[in-house]
Amino acid sequence: MNKRLIVVGSILLLGLVFIIIFAYDSYIDDQKYRHNPVNMGSYEISDYYKIDPETILDALNRGETNVFMPLQGDPFTTEELPGVNISWAQADYLQIANALSQFVWGEPLDFKDWKVYDLHFRISCQSTGFDYGEITYFKPYEVNWRRGYTTRYIEIDPYSGIVRWGDKESYPQPILFYKWNDFDLPASRITADDAVQIADENGGKEVRLRDENKCYITMSAPASHTNNNDRWRVSFVGNYSFEIYIDPYTGEFDVQKPNE
Asked: Where along the chain do its domains lie?
């Protein structure tokens, strides 16, 4: 009888511990979305710089580093620069992000220790290149038996001639559930540029033409605990909806929202 009580008590205790861990991890995960690392407003340490979108890539290719200038005025009320025609690829945004990382933190954009949490681009249906990009990346840490993630954020807005960055936002690491995954950018074979083309050839073009190219396309590579983790998510936004998920390693795809 006593053995049976011990077994039942042990099972109940383990179940209670499991419930507590699940509740704790769920709370931490909920707080992450309330204080989202992909939002600039989540960072107490942040700054802004002005760039010349017409010359910055050529300057970086020449080895110049003085491409980030102090920004005068409110960065949230800055208007678009007149006469700017940007057609940048994923590699161009990463090149600028790498230069900004060296300028701000004195180190290159390294995806060995740092992991990509989210990579986001936007493109007009009338354009051939991305007109906006941002990257959120993180690194696990452990201090006094406490484990967590520290994040950085870089936003590049060429049409406004602005780059923004945030740093040192920390998030506790869950015990068992909802641990952060990453988008393995160095191992990916399908770039954001490739993903847009794949989407266009497999339903996206019909959406653009029906909408007379009065639409835009968002690209993201979110790292999460969902089934669509580690995949490009391409969304056509306009009068007609279309969304497709693309494997960055094989190019295989899955249409989530057919054109309507």
From this structure: 2-257
